Amino acid sequence: MSTLAELLFRSVDGVFVVDAQQRVVFWDPGCAHLLGQSSASVLGRRCSEVVRGNDPAGQPFCGGSCCVARLSLGENAPGAFPLCVRDAQDREHRFAVSIVLVPSLRQERWYCVHMLRRDEAIDPLAIMQHEADPNPSIGTHRRTPDRGLSILSVREKEILKLLAEGLKVAGISQLLNIRPVTVRNHVQHIQSKLGVHSQACTVAYAYRHNLV
Q1: Which residues contact residue 105 at a Cβ distance below 8 angstroms, ignoring those fewer than 6 apart?
Q2: What span, in angstroms and rounded, lies between the C-alpha atoms of 49 and 176?
């Protein structure tokens, strides 16, 4: 059976990983091919110096204040986002970037996995669920919010209910006996599936549509 990493990597065009200090600790051959930078030339450097991505409007995205960097302050992982990157030959590439947090062996540390895709972003949790149950097909399209609870997994429904009760990430982590980064990943995908962009909007959506 394929490993989770193999499933994820086969579903995207490039993968790179940064640590809590935003240093590149993994740069796969896909990134090396797309952006013209070898793994040896980027490992250990800050991702903002390597990727130098812009948003679709041409404004700088990568840097110390980007949504991914703010994860070190305890914020939730962002949903998929567009990113424009220039390669070593100054050619522009447009990606949909998906993020997943992976706990490191050191307590309260994490690695942030960036998955680059040239069309639609993937849903990493769908890949993980497919590993446990390979029969359903893995959809990579963004689901519409009007399907309500039917598009959420059992764990996501559980976390949504706890969010609606006012629990924070740390409280949910302790109650369900799972790592905080796992809770943040679930919250990220709840937001993506419901079409909202913040925890407050998630709770408001849940009450407005009688999901809790």
Answers
A1: none
A2: 38
Q: pLDDT tens digits, residue range 119-166? A: 655 555 554 544 444 444 444 344 444 455 667 888 888 999 888 888
Whether residues 46 and 112 share a domain: the answer is yes
Nearest one of 204, 195, 205, 188 to 126, comparing CA atoms: 188
| DSSP, residue by residue, 144-206 | PGGGGGGGS-HHHHHHHHHHHTT--HHHHHHHHT--HHHHHHHHHHHHHHHT--SHHHHHHHH
Check whether residue 119 and residue 175 sit in a common domain.
no
Q: How many domains does the chain have?
A: 2
Domain range for 157 is 143-208
Nearest to 143 by CA among 120, 174, 159: 120
Q: Confidence class of residue 24 from pLDDT cuts 50, 70 and 90?
A: very high
